[in-house]
Amino acid sequence: MANPACESDAAVPYPFGGCLLAEETYLKEGICRWLNVFQDNPAFTLFFDFDKDLIKETLDIEGCKGIRIFPVIDKGGKMNVMIVAKNTENNEITNAEGKITHIDCCGQNGESRFYNEKVKDKCE
Questions:
Q1: Where are the domains of the chain?
Q2: Do the Cβ atoms of 82 and 106 come closer than 8 Å?
Q3: Source organism's superkingdom (predicted)?
């Protein structure tokens, strides 16, 4: 499913999913829509921080052409994400037994200057 932001003239699409946007308006508008839908949900989480080395380790898996991000609810009842590597066939990369063995789990929540300065209390 294509994202309307990725269909704009400002977007640079990538063959294995996603696009590069250079206009922060899309980010702000998307965060505002997220807030409007989820902020009253007790599971709500604003964003997820992952260490660069953890993401790089995933991208360096043999055969990796991209990542897949699964939304999850953690054992504490909060929204989170788990990230796995995917291959050129758009499948998760597994071991010989067919199991995913490298899962980037459970981003932490910190502070976001962009959110605090440009989004917080500014959504319609």
A1: 1-40+111-124, 48-108
A2: yes
A3: Bacteria
